[in-house]
Design a protein that fits this description.
Elements: E1 9-12, H1 18-30, E2 33-38, H2 41-51, E3 56-60, H3 66-75, E4 82-85, H4 98-126, E5 129-133, H5 147-166, E6 173-179, H6 185-194, H7 206-218, E7 227-230
Parallel strand pairs: 1-2, 1-4, 2-3, 4-5, 5-6, 6-7
Helix pairs in contact: 1-7, 3-4, 4-5
C-alpha cells in the first residue's frame, strides 16, 4: 500500500493552528484531501484558502459535543485513510482539582477516543492510520502545577494502546506521537503558568512534528510503529 493512495481522505482535529495546521499542510502537499476540524471557524477557513478549497473541507466542531463528533464522522463515513488527533488543551492544576481534571479529560481523552470509535468502520475499510498527538508530559513525572494535564495525556496513551490490540489483523496502524516543547499557542500558556521563557533553540517547531508524522505515515505497513518521541536537541 502506497501513501497516499489516490483520493486519500484525512481528518485533522486541532487544525486551526500549531501542530494540527502544520500536519494538514503536509497532508495536502502529499496529495490528500484534508477535512480541517477545530473550534474556531475563521482560522480553519483561512487555512483552507491557503491550501486550496478543492483539497480541503472545513468542519468547525467542539469535539466534546457528541453531535459535533457525529457530524464530523459523517463527512468521512464513505472513506477515511488517516485520522490525526491534534486537538488538545492545557490547564494548570494538580491531579486532585476536580473541575480541571474533568475538562482536560473531556478534550484530551474522551473526545479523541469517541471520535475514533465513530470513524473506525471507514478506517478499517481503508486499512487506514490513526495518529494521536500526545505530549512528552505523558512519559515522565510532572510537577504539582502540571499534574492534571500530564495525567490526561497518560490516560490518552493508555486508551490508544488499548485500541491497538482490538484492531489486530485489520491492517490499521495506531500511532502515538509525543512531542516535546513545541512553539505553539498552547506552550505559551504553559510558559505563562511557569512564569518563565525558553530560548528559541530549545523549542521544536510545528513543522518538525508534521514532517515526522508524514515520515511515519509513509513507512511500510509491514512494520508496526507505536510510539514516536520527539524532543528538542540537547533538551
Amino acid at each position: 500500500m502506497s501513501f497516499p493512495e489516490k483520493d486519500s481522505i484525512a481528518v485533522v482535529t486541532g487544525a486551526a493552528g500549531g501542530i494540527g495546521a502544520a500536519i494538514a499542510r503536509h497532508l495536502v502537499d502529499a496529495g490528500c484531501h484534508v477535512i480541517l476540524s477545530g473550534r474556531s471557524t475563521a482560522p480553519l477557513q483561512a487555512l483552507a484558502a491557503l491550501l486550496g478549497k478543492t483539497r480541503t473541507t472545513v468542519c468547525p466542531a467542539d469535539l466534546t459535543d457528541e453531535s459535533a463528533r457525529h457530524a464530523l464522522a459523517r463527512l468521512c463515513a464513505n472513506r477515511l485513510d488517516i485520522l490525526v488527533h491534534s486537538a488538545g488543551l492545557f490547564l494548570p492544576g494538580p491531579a486532585d482539582n476536580g473541575p480541571t481534571v474533568t475538562r482536560l479529560d473531556a478534550i484530551n481523552v474522551t473526545a479523541p477516543m469517541a471520535l475514533s470509535s465513530l470513524c473506525l468502520p471507514a478506517i478499517i475499510q481503508a486499512h487506514g492510520q490513526i495518529v494521536f498527538i500526545n505530549s512528552t508530559a505523558a512519559l515522565s513525572p510532572a510537577g504539582h502545577a502540571h499534574e492534571a494535564y500530564a495525567a490526561s495525556k497518560r490516560a490518552l496513551k493508555h486508551a490508544a494502546d488499548a485500541l491497538r490490540p482490538s484492531l489486530k489483523g485489520r491492517h490499521v496502524r495506531v500511532l502515538n506521537v509525543f512531542p516535546g516543547r513545541t512553539d505553539t499557542a498552547m506552550l505559551q500558556k504553559v510558559l505563562e503558568n511557569e512564569a518563565g521563557t525558553l530560548t528559541p533553540p530549545a523549542l521544536l517547531q510545528p513543522d518538525d512534528i508534521a514532517q515526522t508524522v508524514l515520515y511515519c505515515l509513509r513507512t511500510s505497513r509491514r512494520l508496526e510503529l507505536t510510539d514516536i518521541v520527539i524532543r528538542p536537541e540537547n533538551a
